[in-house]
Amino acid sequence: MMKSSFAIATGVGLLFLAACNGPKESADAAAAPAPVPAAAAKPGTTAADADALVAEVDKYAVDNAARLGAAFWIAQTYITDDAQLLAANATEEQLEFQSAKAEEAKRFNDTPGLSPETARALTLIKLGPTMPAPSDPAKRKELAAIAAKMDANYGAGQWCRPNAAGQEECLKLQQIEKIVDNVELKNTPAQIEAAWNGWHQTSRPIRKDYQRFTELMNEGASQLGFKDTGELWRGGYDMSPAEFDAEVERLWGQVKPMYDDLHCLVRDKLNKKYGDAVVPKDGLIPAHLLGNMWAQQWSNLYPLLEPYPGQDSLDVSSALKAQRDAEYKTLLAAFKGKPTPSDIAELEHKADAAQAVKMAKVAEDFYVSLGFPKLPESFWAKSLLVQPRDRDVVCHASAWDMNLKGDVRIKQCIEPDEEELTTIHHELGHIYYYLSYNHLRPVFQSGAHDGFHEAIGDTITLSLTPEHLKKIGLVKSVQKNDKATINSQMKLALDKIVFLPWGKLVDQWRWKVFSGQIKPEDYNAGWWKLREQYQGVSPPNARSEDDFDPGAKYHIPGNTPYTRYFLSFVLQFQFQKALCDASGFKGPLSECDVYGNAEAGKRFIEMLALGSSQPWPDTLEKLTGTRKMDASAIIEYFTPLIAYMKEQNQGKSCGWKVPEDAPAAAAAAPAT
Ligand code: X8Z
Ligand code: ZN
After folding, report:
1. What is the tally of structural domains in the chain?
2. How far is the CA of 111 from the centre of ligand 1 (A)?
3. Which of the two ends of the chain, N or C, has the fewest CB atoms closer than 10 A to its terminal CB?
4. What is the full DSSP assignment across 357-407?
5. How far apart are CA 561 and CA 555, in angstroms?
6. What's the pLDDT tens digit per position in 405-442?
7. Contact call for residues 23 and 120 (beta carbons, < 8 A)
């Protein structure tokens, strides 16, 4: 579940924090205010000058990480105007330093005799900025201010409506999501649509800002020698942007048939539940009915899709909730005297916090079983694991390396449900990546590429098989038969396969916006065209160019590149297969659980320890034996489900058509 978020400098902050990010956010960007070094005044171009530049970037990172980290951490965990101001200043400093160093690094493009290490470091520095800033200080300030404003707008987003008593009540994202997630499948389409609209109207105010933001970043990118910001982003993969484009298309081609099968099955079930007038038999599925605000993962629909009802329950959330309630009962029993309502609220909060720690320890325990170290005491003392009762915080989960030497933290508003348990594993993947590469020079302290960073924790969650969940007491009993296998695969596919088109399209939109292929006056229509094309979903109601629906997703105002997640959802199955092979596992991939396997752990840790010190294909090869990202492991993983879907879809008319250059279709209008 995506949490509400308010982050003044998140987009920029991520540059340094690697909060939920990757190589572009390497520590080199942590470098702070930029007293322009003497070397820049009299630029030299020798190999020794290049070594000095890289050393300078490293030193700034070491010297300033903690100071900048503190500004961003406070801005996200104590949202006040003052904290925002400090974070905005930090952002501006970073932009200045980072853009200056990227520019300086270009001086060495033709320098002979660079050491391989320095040459690689320079490449990373040149590709460093996710938010390339113009060299004009006024424009840089404007860019930082817009970034701050967009983040603030996202975080402050709320939907106000009259409650049952006729009084206005305002809901934040987390509460609005509860209506759209519809886990009980009891809300009406109209109720869900109202909530969906409620959240999507919050991004209207930043539409103009996003246009200016794009212009300014493009100016910065062009000064660094890139055609546009999209080309800069696509440059971070040890191949040309055009080659990277082709790689993404190739991977998408491999997985699209699985998505199409799933889309067909889900549409059929929704059509039966809601009727032809709401969900057409053919054509697009209304985006609000898929159990997620962005229709990015659909596992909340699992009860509707369960292939073989009557097998064991895979419901982990109720076990987590029961643990939390037991905790509360214990606290209440230990309470002396008669608790007042405020005592009760305090006890409830304590129970939430205790349960959050318990869940985080479940995740830590898995990593430790593989040979990773225990998390430092400071992690437990300084992380934010539950939503505070007394203030607003950015709830969107993130992982932080505060000082490049052990002060690691996560910030996540943990609730007792399965999705949150998965997210903790995801965040600890980032944390253990940090800890594993902290010994490297700062410029190499990032993921092999950003998709690697996102894939570590998710790989671990692939070992949370029903059998594993039974062992740790989160499901009651498990059967081992084909029907049970198909059931658990369906549940996972509703997250992992369904995510793929979404994971690709978010940046397809941004890349087109950056290149000018989608013009400002078509921002929203361009967005829906891609959602229709890739996901086969339609907006719940007619949209207009007053709307800015892309801005309702955290990573757009937060300026976090998104293709990383598409790559991660492919890579994590490759990683899992490699770990399972290393562990000596022989059965079907979906049954493999590497918990406690020292050999798998060793191989994983060795990969993480390399950071971005070498091109990612070398790093991938070391773990998996192949130099290419490849979807065959995800296909292998879901083989039983794929066969089931084929059989179920026989005779059905699957697929959808997207009208060429037509405005986004409203939900009720069948696709032609
Ligand atoms: O944003 C995240 C993480 C932090 S890097 C919670 N994810 C993407 C999203 O929620 O949209 C993880 C999966 C995709
Ligand atoms: Zn992440």
Report:
1. 1
2. 40
3. C
4. HHHHHHHHHHHHHTTPPPPPHHHHHH-B-S--SSS----S-EEEESSSSS-
5. 7
6. 999 999 999 999 999 999 999 999 999 999 999 999 99
7. no
On whether 564 is known to bind a ligand per the annotation, the reply is: yes
Cβ of 20 less than 6 Å from ligand 1? yes
What does residue 281 show for φ and ψ, rounded to 5 degrees?
Answer: -65, -40
Any ligand 1 atom below 6 A from CB of 2: yes
Nearest CA to ligand 1 atom 10: 2
- Indicate whether 289 belongs to any domain: no
* 426 annotated as a binding-site residue: yes
Is 19 part of any domain? yes
Catalytic: which of 427, 453, 468, 532? 427
3-state secondary structure string across 97-120 = HHHHHHHHHHHHCCCCCCCHHHHH
State the sign of the Cα–Cα–Cα–Cα dihedral 433, 436, 439, 440: negative
Was 454 annotated as part of a binding site? yes
317/435 Cα distance (integer angstroms): 30
Cα distance between residue 121 and residue 101, in whole Å: 12
The pTM of this model reads 0.93
Who surrounds ion ligand 2 at CB < 5 A? 20, 454
Residue 553's closest CA among 569, 533, 530?
A: 530
618: in domain: no
Residue type, 449: H
**Block residue for tokens 């020794």:** 48
- Give yes or no for a contact between 143 and 217, defined as CB atoms under 8 angstroms apart: yes
pLDDT tens by residue, 248-291: 999 999 999 999 999 999 999 999 999 999 999 999 999 999 99
| 423 Cβ below 6 A of ligand 1 | yes
pLDDT at 125: 95
Count of residues in the chain: 672
pLDDT in tens, 351-371: 999 999 999 999 999 999 999
Question: CA 548, 553, 555: angle at the middle one, nearest 5?
Answer: 115
Strand-pairing partners, residue 399, are 410
396 is in an annotated binding site: no
Structural domain includes residue 76: yes
Burial of 41 (0-12, 13-18, 19+ CB in 10 A): exposed
Question: How would you write 126-192 as a 3-class SS string?
Answer: HCCCCCCCCCCHHHHHHHHHHHHHHHHHHHHCEEEEECCCCCEEEEEHHHHHHHHHCCCCCCCHHHH
User: CA separation (Å) from 525 to 56, 197, 434, 519?
Assistant: 46, 16, 40, 10
Distance CA 527, CA 517 (A): 12
Mutating to test ligand 1, I would choose from 20, 459, 461, 571 the residue with most ligand atoms within 8 A of its C-beta, which is 20
To the query of whether residue 555 is one of the catalytic residues in this protein, the response is: yes
Active site residue 219: no
Residues 84, 90: Cα–Cα separation, whole Å: 10
- Domain holding 192, by residue range, is 9-249
Residue of 426, 453, 496 to mutate, ligand 1, most atoms within 8 A of C-beta: 426
